Amino acid sequence: MHRNIVFQQDNVRAHTARYTQQFLEQSNVQVLPWPALSPDLNPIEHLWDYLHRRLDCEDHQPQNAEDLEHSLLHWNAIPRHFYRL
């Protein structure tokens, strides 16, 4: 259906399991080669780290999904270098 898509994943054990690899091959999913032990190469990892650190600084820690959404939506200022190409 989407022939030009390349799937990106890190080398987490569940992603490299034989069953997972076989499924991706049988499904003709093109996977981006990923160096071992290099999750820091994935740009989203830096954003997750930033968001986690911001949440740790909150006076009121989110207790549920609604609290978390409220915190994330009201920050207004995630530095551009986290999402700019």
From TrEMBL:
Pfam families: DDE_3. Residues 4-68 form the Tc1-like transposase DDE domain. Transmembrane segments: none annotated. GO terms for molecular function: nucleic acid binding. It comes from the Eukaryota. This is Transposable element Tc1 transposase. It comes from Elysia marginata.
